[in-house]
Amino acid sequence: MDAATRFSEYLARNQLRLTRERRTILEEMLQIRGHFDADQLLMHFRRKGRAVSRATLYRTLARLVEAGLVHKIEMAQGQARYEIMFGRHHHDHMICLACGRIIEFESREIERAQDEVCRKKGFRMTGHMHQIRGLCDRCSERAGASDGAPRGGSMPRGGVAPRAGRSPRRGRARGRVRV
Fold first, then answer.
1. Cα–Cα distance between 66 and 158 in angstroms, integer?
2. Is 104 left (phi over 0), alpha (psi -120 to 50) or beta?
3. Can you tell me the mean pLDDT for 100-129?
4. Which of 98, 113, 127 shows the shortest CA–CA distance to 179?
5. At 88, is the pLDDT very low, low, confident or very high (cuts 50, 70, 90)?
6. HEC letters along the chain
7. Angstrom distances, CA of residue 36 to CA of 17, 33, 61, 88
8. Domains in the chain: ranges and CATH
9. pLDDT, tens digit (0-9, with 9 covering 90-100), for 136-159
10. Phi and psi for 25 in degrees, rounded to 5?
11. 33-84 pLDDT tens trace
12. 158 Cβ partners below 8 Å, 6+ apart?
């Protein structure tokens, strides 16, 4: 089943239609590789001369997440990034709280541990999102060099906020890490 059919079926189950705007948003998103935020997607449409309202984009993103075609990644300070999940397999994320870099990874050990915990607790898992927050290798080196903190040491709960006056960069995953 293709993405448009799957989205159309999801919308029909919720008494909604696959409008021209929703179809346009879905088709354009399927061309994007990597992680993106709503503003980047809106700018993408504007550069292409396509009229999509911010409200329609946000509502459609929420529907695509609910339909399981798009994954929403919660970042620091209430920000969110998205990625297309249609046609992709499950993976998890490490998120740098300083620069915004997202590193995808897969771990059979983590998956097995989750399954075992669910089995022991009699819990039927239907899905999960695993996100590790902290500092990437580059930001960890910079933090260690600037404040004398030991590399690889523990961080306070919630991590480190971006430096004052700067917002996190729009990081891209640098490939998939298998553990």
1. 27
2. beta
3. 88
4. 113
5. low
6. CCHHHHHHHHHHHCCCCCCHHHHHHHHHHCCCCCCECHHHHHHHHHHCCCCCCHHHHHHHHHHHHHCCCEEEEECHHHCEEEEECCCCCCCEEEEECCCCCEEEEECHHHHHHHHHHHHHHCCCCCCCCCEEEECCHHHHHHHHHHHCCCCCCCCCCCCCCCCCCCCCCCCCCCCEEEC
7. 25, 9, 12, 16
8. 1-88 (1.10.10.10), 90-179 (3.30.1490.190)
9. 999 988 887 655 444 444 443 344
10. -60, -45
11. 888 889 989 988 899 888 888 999 999 999 999 998 988 888 777 788 898 8
12. 133
Tokens at residue 104, please? 């995808």
Give me the pLDDT at residue 172, please. 42
